[in-house]
Predict the 3D structure of the following.
Amino acid sequence: MSFTEKRPKGLTRRNFIKGTAAGAVGGMVAGAAGTLLAASPAPAAKEALCAELVKMRGHEGDMIDAYLARPTGPDPYPGVVVIHHMPGWDEATKEITRKFAYHGYAAISPDLHFREGKGTPEANSASVAAAGGMPDNRTMGDVEGAIRQLRALPYVNGKVGIIGYCSGGRQVYLAACTLKGIDAAVACYPGGVAEGPARLNARQPVDPFDYTKDLSCPLLGLFGKEDKRPSPEHMAKTEAELKKWGKTYEFHAYDKAAHAFFAVDRESYRPSAAVDGWKQVFKWFEKYLR
């Protein structure tokens, strides 16, 4: 059976063949009965992204690992530094980094536990915990290096935000008060802020709360009302201090949510809080990074 016998009435053989060939690139394709069907449109630009392991210069010029993800659609994009939680530079952290790329950001997550050299996120995290936590000066050096790395990329629009979870939320608060060049910050259940001196040590000698007057960018805080660290009291104390110094901030506290309510791989996950939390995150970064 020839093309001529099955082509629709009024369509020349040449145009019919051209139409079927165009199907591979979004043109017309022939249906089972010889009718012309529109090919499925190409996926939206944000559906395509690039993610890879890279090296970056951190504290005192150390070369450490980082995970970089970005869209492949038209640039430029805002930048986001993802500061991982205490369980480490793990699969969940990389998933979050890719989520930002999906939503149109160039995101980088430095491995803050890289120097432990234990081979797995769990072992590195245990090593850090046993030593008294991450040294603040080294962490700030690594975060500053990640900010520099983003700003040097030709497809970044010049604006960089930071986000962190748990201990990473504490580090976000500290970075937003002590580092320059941050355009917006998001602290998710930042344990260790506004706690006072009880848990301070040589590695973490100052409560980030004490630097609140130096906060240099808009801050979004996301909390669970059933959390113990930070507790609602810690949140209220931090909010009062931010108001005292006239800082730009926004806090959201969620019912029936405790610590790590964003963590889809843990029992603490709370879908309603996490879904709204992500909405607040992207609204915040859209406002201050676009």
Q: What stands out?
A: Residues 1-45 have pLDDT under 50 and may be disordered.
